[in-house]
């Protein structure tokens, strides 16, 4: 059994991760950290988890990771909107895994977009999310642009009713190509998060970024 603690456990993603971990036959949920639950990351680390999963805020994720790694606990990060460079050099004996998007369809969308960008003149990204999302552009859109080779304009839409959606539109003479992914339920992220929890302990380098590295 892998002992797992979740930071941001009262949030939209964190609460869904808690349910998924509780339902996984090979995992045990040993702590839920969240100011909304009056429980700090330090308190849940006392339960000696093997992995801390973080779906919190850009302003808290790095200090949470630092604290877990100092205690020799692996970290799986889903939080977006922070500078990954802040994690370099951290780790010691423990590893960090980060994915801007844990949905398999989004990983495929990013790969198809990177492939298409080599053959079409220009591209733009439209990312659409629920109105509670704090960062803009989304981590997925930023990562997609990076994989496509940089300088791709990103448009951000924030509206109630949306979950997480992205269109990559490529244009060339007389034609366009649209690649679209929709996460219509946060369950879409759970197989990827559980995979990361299972594999973070056997990474040979750290940090590792992107779910495609585990597939
Ligand atoms: N990687 C992915 O696949 C993916 C998918 C969806 C969302 N996200 C990202 O996950 C993050 C969380 O999104 P959300 O919609 O669940 O947000 P949310 O606001 O619903 O939840 C965040 C939670 O973190 C808690 N929190 C704040 N400071 C904390 C701390 N120091 N320690 C522990 N908990 C703390 C808050 O009280 C809140 O409950 C965002 O950065 C979002 O962009 C990533």
SSE blueprint:
Layout: E1 2-7, H1 12-23, E2 27-33, H2 41-45, E3 51-54, H3 61-70, E4 74-77, E5 96-98, H4 104-117, E6 122-129, H5 139-147, E7 154-158, E8 164-172, E9 175-183, H6 190-199, E10 208-209
Parallel strand pairs: 1-2, 1-3, 3-4, 4-5, 5-10, 6-7
Antiparallel strand pairs: 6-8, 8-9
Helix pairs in contact: 4-5
Bound molecules: nicotinamide-adenine-dinucleotide.
Identify the notable features of this structure and list them briefly.
alpha/beta, 4-stranded mixed sheet, 215 residues, 6-stranded parallel sheet, binds nicotinamide-adenine-dinucleotide, 6 helices
Order of helices and strands: EHEHEHEEHEHEEEHE
- Apparent shape: globular
Total strands: 10
The distinct bound ligands, ions and cofactors come out as: nicotinamide-adenine-dinucleotide
Uncertain segments: none
Structural class: alpha/beta
- The strand line-up of the biggest sheet is 2-1-3-4-5-10
What's the helical proportion of residues? 25-40%
The percent range for strand residues is 25-35%
Describe this structure in words.
The longest helix is centred in the middle third of the chain and has 14 residues. With 215 residues, this protein is an alpha/beta fold. α4 packs parallel to α5. The relative contact order is 0.17. It is globular and about 60 Å long. It is 28% helix and 27% strand. The strands form two sheets. A six-stranded parallel β-sheet has the order 2-1-3-4-5-10, with helices on both faces. Strands 7-6-8-9 form a four-stranded mixed β-sheet, with helices on one face. The protein has six helices and ten strands.
